[in-house]
Input
Amino acid sequence: MFSLETANIERAITNAKALHPKVKMIEFGTYEVTGNKGNTYTVKCYRKAGEKIVECNCATRAGVACKHGLAAVSLHIALAARRGH
Ligand SMILES: [Zn+2]
Output
């Protein structure tokens, strides 16, 4: 789990761009991300106390942005903007 406000997301953005993980929406705020080895992760995106929180069930430690989380949150932000949130 990491916050878009506090995590260092630059490296994860670079990784996400290089690997193009596939993101599938389960429902608004919940996404399934397929990694480069075909493994899938569930990512949840939500707001808590004004921060954008991203929760991924991969092994990346708390507070560190992972590429799955960023791939999912970029779709989430695009969808949220379309919905007018
Ligand atoms: Zn992850």
